[in-house]
Amino acid sequence: VVFSDLVNFSHTVFLGRTEFNYTRFLKDAIFRETEFQPGFPLLELSVDKYILFRNAYFENQKNVIFDNVDMSKVSFIDTDITRIKFRNVKWEEYDNRYILYCEKLLILKNDGYYRYRHIVRALNRLKRLRSNEEELRKRIEELYKLSDERLSEKIHEIIEEIDHALKKSVKEWDRELLERIESQSIDEILSMYRALRENYEYYLRYETAGKFFISEMEMMKCSRRGIERAVLTLYKCLCLYGESCTRPIIWSVLIIVLFALVRLCLQLFSLPSTISLSDKTSVIAMFIENLEISAATFFQMYTVLEYHVLIERLLSVIILGCLFISLRRRFEKKVRTR
Q1: Is the confidence at residue 216, as pLDDT, over 70?
Q2: Of 200, 38, 33, 191, nearest in space to 122 by CA
Q3: 3-state SS, residue 31
Q4: Spatial separation of the C-alpha atoms in residues 47 and 35, rounded to whole Å
Q5: Could you report the per-residue pLDDT of 12-63, keeping only the tens digit for each?
Q6: Which pTM value belongs to this model?
Q7: Less CB within 10 Å around the terminal CB: N or C of the chain?
Q8: Partners of 66 in the beta sheet?
Q9: What does the pLDDT average to over 193-203?
Q10: Angle at CA 205, nearest 5°, toward 204 and 208?
């Protein structure tokens, strides 16, 4: 399909699965307050109903606008979106980052426990909706915008579908979801996250870009095995892939305190049994002294050749390196926004 003129989908509601595969937008395209709805009644269980831009082409990307749109069920596969404008859009958040629907499908496909929780949560929402007919009617009115006569028929139809859905067990839904979830490529998802990160960086929206960068790194981690995956996992734990300055600072404090306690324990065990440690003040003084030594060791100012000293110095290099990366990334973002 080729749109050779302005395309305006403002206030349009797309129900069910909609595909813009190999569609060419040669001029402006506006999606303002556009609704992408999976339709009733299955909500989260409608895993095969979403908006897919696959190999779509936007000629003038800077005039393609998604404004005030819920993007939680929109997918851009093999589509260049690096200059499209996203304004006040809603991305689904998950674990300190944004998650695209295609990755969510990938997790549902591969993680049985996540899929189980997803099904249980969806069924519970359906139960609450079924027990509140006023809320159900309101949701259907907002979604379908039908006449009173047609609305009553639709409500009856949807109630039957909800009842049918609730009769199925979690195991039945689990099997059905596995059959209906399409296979997702990690490389395609990684490319989408990279494109979105570049998009938000181009428009100097670094907070959002940072969340997509975390998602990009998560996909990169999923595509790796062995040592590479372990290194990326450690990188995430220490500084959230360079997006957190707080984490390495916390790790620094923990390491200093931990090794101070290790030194204190070694000192206490090495004391002769005839010496009493009933004086709490002396123990506290010993701990403070070891805390100072541990801090000096962490910042490479204490070089005694002992195994715990070498371990602490090695850990400090890794943590301080992560802190440097995080601070540099934050500094670069501030410089670019000026």
Answers
A1: yes
A2: 38
A3: strand
A4: 17
A5: 877 666 778 778 887 778 888 777 665 554 555 666 567 888 888 888 888 8
A6: 0.82
A7: C
A8: 31, 86
A9: 94
A10: 150
219-222 contact pairs (CB < 8 A, 24+): 219/103, 219/186, 219/189, 219/190, 219/193, 220/190, 222/186
In the predicted model, what is the mean pLDDT of residues 136-162?
A: 81
Coil vs helix vs strand at 7: strand
d(CA 29, CA 35): 15
As given in the structure block, the two tokens for residue 277 are 């440690």
* CA distance readout (Å), 174 to 146, 177, 179, 183, 198: 33, 5, 9, 16, 36
Provide the pLDDT for residue 195. Answer: 94
- Asked if pLDDT for residue 148 goes beyond 60, the answer is yes
Give the up-direction half-sphere exposure of residue 202: CA atoms within 13 A in the CB hemisphere. 14
Question: What is 191-217 written as a DSSP string?
Answer: HHHHHHHHHHHHTT-HHHHHHHHHHHH
* Cα Rg of the chain, angstroms: 27
> What is the model's pLDDT at position 39?
54
Cα 21–chain centre separation: 26
Name residue 37's beta-bridge partners.
15
Q: For residues 270 and 286, what is the distance between their CA atoms, to the nearest angstrom? A: 13
More confident residue, 125 or 98: 98
Q: What is the pLDDT of residues 155-197, one digit of tens each?
A: 888 888 888 888 889 999 899 888 888 778 899 999 999 999 9
- The DSSP secondary structure of 226-285, one letter per residue, reads HHHHHHHHHHHHHHTTTT-SHHHHHHHHHHHHHHHHHHHHHHHHHS-TTS----HHHHHH
Number of residues written out for the chain: 338
91 in Cβ contact with 71 (< 8 Å): yes
3 state SS of 29: strand
